[in-house]
Amino acid sequence: MLRPTLFLLLAGVLQIVSAHFELKYPTTRGFDETKEPTFPCGGFDTVQNRTQVPLKDAFVEINSGHTSYSYVVNVLAKNDPTTADFSTAVVAVSSGTRNYPQAACLSLNLSNGTGITNGSNATIQVIFNGGDGLLYQCTDVTFVDSAPNFDQSMCVNADGSSTATSSGSAPAANNTQSKASSVTVSSGFLLLVIACIYITV
Question: Residue 62's domain spans which residues?
Answer without folding.
Answer: 19-160
